[in-house]
């Protein structure tokens, strides 16, 4: 598989994960924490942006394979801990 195609697939996967993160955080903040819709949307957008930025920077377009594993594990661990505890 070519490097550009591989990066494109990773880019789509990171985008999907960012969307899911943003949506889940919005639902949690709006319905469970009972924040207003604007605050929930802004905070969930920030979370989605961070997931997208770190994922694309460290995994999609990174040349160092070991570097992205560390950050991917960190993001997934933080994501699942948030879901479990909230």
Word description of this protein:
By secondary structure, the protein is mainly alpha-helical. The chain has one domain (3-85). The protein is built from 3 helices and no strands. It has helices at residues 3-32, 37-60, 65-85. α2 runs antiparallel to α3 (65-85).
Q: Beta fraction of the residues?
A: under 5%
Q: Quickly give the structural class.
A: mainly alpha
Low-confidence stretches: none
Helix fraction?
over 70%
Please compute the radius of gyration using only Cα atoms.
14 Å
Distance between the termini: 40 Å
Number of folding domains?
A: 1
Query: Tally of extended strands?
Result: 0
Global morphology: elongated
The pLDDT mean sits at 83
Individual helix count: 3
The main sheet comes to:
none
SSE pattern: HHH
Concise summary:
With 86 residues, this protein is mainly α. It contains three helices and no strands.
Task: Please name the defining characteristics of this protein.
mainly alpha; 86 residues; single chain; 0% strand
What are the SSEs and their pairings?
Elements: H1 3-32, H2 37-60, H3 65-85
Helix pairs in contact: 1-2, 2-3
């Amino acid at each position: 598989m070519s490097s550009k195609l591989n990066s494109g697939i990773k880019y789509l996967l990171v985008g999907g994960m960012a969307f899911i993160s943003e949506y889940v955080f919005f639902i949690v903040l709006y319905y469970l924490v009972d924040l207003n819709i604007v605050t929930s949307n802004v905070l969930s957008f920030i979370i989605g942006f961070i997931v997208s930025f770190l994922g694309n920077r460290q995994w999609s377009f990174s040349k160092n394979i070991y570097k992205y594993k560390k950050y991917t594990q960190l993001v997934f661990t933080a994501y699942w801990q948030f879901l479990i505890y909230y």
